[in-house]
């Protein structure tokens, strides 16, 4: 991949409690939290979680909405989750994520096959919600 190739950098999720959300993503999903202590100390506006070396999810508290003034109507977006976020994982990690979610009591959907995505048709996928109602799809493409 070249430096000039467009990439997905981050997505902002509205959450009720960013510290609790970061803990969920760390323990149940297995993602690395970032800037949680700084957020708790009031040094940054929100924490994030790292998906991979190029992509993060920002965990914006609903109280952050008044600062969303970059476009008309941005303030009103608080509390409106996106349809879903899809995470692509290798086979072993896919299985480990599903098991970890079930261990944490997170309801998961059945396994779907052949759903189309960025890399073609996925071998298998399932869906789950975070504590704020944001929907995630986990998928595995044949290696």
TrEMBL record:
InterPro entries for this protein: Glyas_Bleomycin-R_OHBP_Dase, Glyas_Fos-R_dOase_dom, GlyoxalaseI/FosfomycinResist, VOC_core
Keyword Transmembrane: no
GO molecular function list: dioxygenase activity; lyase activity
SUPFAM superfamilies: Glyoxalase/Bleomycin resistance protein/Dihydroxybiphenyl dioxygenase (SSF54593)
Keyword tags: Dioxygenase, Lyase, Oxidoreductase
Domain VOC: 7-141
Matching PROSITE patterns: VOC
Keyword field contains Glycoprotein: no
Name of the featured protein: Catechol 2,3-dioxygenase-like lactoylglutathione lyase family enzyme
Taxonomic lineage: Bacteria, Bacillati, Actinomycetota, Actinomycetes, Kitasatosporales
